[in-house]
UniProtKB/TrEMBL annotation:
Region annotation Disordered: where it falls in the sequence: 308-334
Compositionally biased residues, Acidic residues: 310-326
Name of the molecule in the record: Protein-L-isoaspartate O-methyltransferase domain-containing protein 2
Superkingdom, taxonomy of origin: Eukaryota
CDD domains recorded: AdoMet_MTases
Taxonomic lineage: Eukaryota, Metazoa, Chordata, Craniata, Vertebrata
Amino acid sequence: MGGAVSAGEDNDDLIDNLKDAQYIRTDEVEKAFRAIDRADYYLDDYKEIAYKDLAWKHGNIHLSAPCIYSEVMEALELYPGLSFLNLGSGTGYLSTMVGLLLGPFGVNHGVEIHPEVIEYAKQKLEQFVRTSDSFDKFDFCEPSFVAGNCLEISLETSAYDRVYCGAGVQKEHEEYMKNLLKVGGILVMPLEEKLTKITRTGPTTWETRKILAVSFAPLVQPNQTENGKRRPLQMPTPLVHSLQDLSRIAIRRRIKTIMKPPSFCRYTGIFKYPPRYKRKRLRRRRMETIVFLDKEVFASRISNPFDDNNNYDDVEEDSREEEEQVASETKSDPPVNVFRERILSLPLPDPLKCYLLYYREK
């Protein structure tokens, strides 16, 4: 399944095509897709096809088409603090994108039947954390991968807010998948050749919506044992943050708020600076205009702030108009920003120019 959008020259170009085709519809999903380069999850010999809207498989390593992942991300309706279960987590590409949206207090679990694929996913995750600039821009919920068959998950496992299955689900396993959800949770899975979204609206009620036609390999059935009993698959215990972790999260958020660089729009070529703190402009204007007032006018205003009819409000309004008129008459044209012109002329990268201009203006 794939080929719904044209191939891109790089990751951003691929995302632009997915947006134009309405596979990506929300800002949050777009940010997650742009933060992770799809080619990083390919083997080196296959990176040239990474930006095509096609599925890729090499041995047990598999990636779905970008249009499928974008529909899945949109259907899951992710936000910080949710618990997520990825059945057939594969390379970890989807789990890592989901982790960018769950935040540090979410839960991000993956189940994969092939141990060598889990090792591959862990290598790619380590590479992302160590080398990607996007890691510092998000409050990341790091995925945990478990080796085993997703049809053998222990019944004692806590239910999840969001569940995705990356393999075709037979009708006989539909109820099993539904019971992995909390009330209010969302399950996305290929069911009867259709990518299906199921929302659990109550203890025994669900809403079902078909998204698009897909073709997935079916789930691998559990092996039969001699005594007929299987060892249930235990999922990781949700992480309880220590005081040190909570402090680190709070400090990182504060630093990112203060040091947030201006964003660059590659379409308009304009840097968008973060909003500054609001100031009491009225108070500052009065302080500035007092400098231009005649001493006699100022003295009379202090000694007799009321008019002949003891109407203070009228006097205050007239005074404000007078101050604004004096200030407008004395205001001169702003000087040329020599510093800005000099910075823009230097042979520096655009992000560095942004930082220099931003902190100079502050």
